[in-house]
Amino acid sequence: MLRLSSLPLRRLSSGPVSKLSPSPASALSDAFSSAGRKDNLTLCVGGFGLCGIPESLIDSIAKDHPTATSLTCVSNNAGVDGFGLGQLLESGQVKRMVSSYVGENKTFERLYLTGELEVELTPQGTLAERLRAGGSGVPAFYTPTAAGTVIAEGGFPIKYAADGKTVEIASEPREVRNFLVDGNEVPHVMETAIKGEVSIVKAWKGDARGNLVFRGTARNFNPEAAKAGKFCIAEVEEVVEAGEIHPDDVHLPGIYVHRVVKATKNEKRIEQVTEIDPDAGAGAGKLPTGGRARIVKRAAKEFKNGMYVNLGIGIPTLASNFLPPGVSIELQSENGLMGMGPFPKKGEADADWINAGKQTVTPVLGASVFSSSESFGMIRSCKVGLTILGGMQVSAAGDLANWIIPGKMVKGMGGAMDLVGAPGSKVVVTMEHVAKNGGHKILSDCSLPLTGQRVVDLIITDMCVFECDKVGGGGLTLTELAEGVTVDDIRANTGCDFKVADELGVMEN
């Protein structure tokens, strides 16, 4: 049997019309002409943070097409102040953002809280799947993500009045339906597909036929955004001749792409340049001390050999520094990397290789990269068996709140709702036992909007460890104490009742 790689690649005497465009401005003019207007468009935008964003096309919308206004931008986030989609926020061209994460963009947060910007916050995996569905002719789908939260129940503020308190537009409730999963009735939320009149994406290489190749974690949302647009423009770092990309190596076929343009801006900023100085010793000065070290060391004991693991931003990420002897795990980063390795050495940071916290990382030998929808497919189907993430509040029933303080802090849920919403995966929450103001963080009921309902299996704090019977409804059981901490100390600092195990373990300092 002949292999494709052994066959010659033939050139047709008269192939398709070239999709190459002379400039970002020209490509955008074609896109707006195809849509029949410039304003009130839905614009699907690839990228994750600042990784893999179409810088040149965004810049051209702001400078060459200022009448492209009242845009609904569908993107995981909105860049940073003054860069990426942050440019379009500052120029007033965006009416609504459909995103999973506000992040550190102060303009984004300010415009939302003062009623100048509509924001439809959507779980990251749901956002990726809505785009994928839109590009695949699937009008809607059911997902366990966000069941029991305000996202499913509706009423979350999409637009505030100028006072920042009165809600002018609230989200609509989703349809919820139970499906049988491993013998249990599990609620699933119906989400509708997203389609855009125009999509703009960034790739590493592209040819005149529109075939694209992405590099590293810069793939992220780009394939999904490209497919969801009726007219897609791909900004590429390198234009190659048709045939230079072997069919086996095409990441996105040209059928989804209408124009290819060479990038005129390729700054490729990095939000969190995180490097190791070999002269100071690997990881020197980065490992936690005190109570945080206790949390991290205890979390590391949850690792089992061969596990596929997702570690949240902050304390959880540090747990991999304390792998038990003989234990090897595979670290997944939800922006599209399996086999996440250490931070790069000083001077070797690469903008195309970042983790979900926007930090620069390196892949391990044998790592793989994939799109955001593929990543969350792994998560949703419980192929990732363990998730460790931070929390603001946890209830006695295993409810988790960790993504927003209404009216004060808007970060967005990112991928957290997807990570904790996968039925059957183990969820470990790591956090300080008491809030900075002395308030309880472990409560009978969470007062903050939920990330997930009945999702937490284990709580690890600087004072103790609780097991949670999230399925049986048996509440919390205290299983371990930090050295010098008593059960009475835990009762005084915990806002709910709990059981005490017959034998209490001692946490390692």
TrEMBL record:
UniProt cross-references to SMART domains, sorted A to Z: CoA_trans
Residue ranges of the TM segments: none
Kindly indicate whether the keyword Mitochondrion belongs to this entry.
yes
The UniProt catalytic activity note for this protein reads: a 3-oxo acid + succinyl-CoA = a 3-oxoacyl-CoA + succinate
Cited Pfam families: CoA_trans (PF01144)
Gene3D superfamilies tied to this protein? Glutaconate Coenzyme A-transferase
Q: Does the keyword Mitochondrion apply?
A: yes
Q: What is its EC number?
A: 2.8.3.5
Tell me which InterPro entries the record gives: 3-oxoacid_CoA-transf_A (IPR012792), 3-oxoacid_CoA-transf_B (IPR012791), 3-oxoacid_CoA-transferase (IPR014388), CoA_trans_fam_I (IPR004165), NagB/RpiA_transferase-like (IPR037171)
Q: Which PANTHER family match?
A: ACETATE COA-TRANSFERASE SUBUNIT ALPHA (PTHR13707:SF60), KETOACID-COENZYME A TRANSFERASE (PTHR13707)
Instruction: Return the NCBIfam families for the record.
Output: pcaI_scoA_fam, pcaJ_scoB_fam
Q: What does this protein do?
A: Key enzyme for ketone body catabolism. Transfers the CoA moiety from succinate to acetoacetate. Formation of the enzyme-CoA intermediate proceeds via an unstable anhydride species formed between the carboxylate groups of the enzyme and substrate.
Q: What is the designated name of this protein?
A: Succinyl-CoA:3-ketoacid-coenzyme A transferase
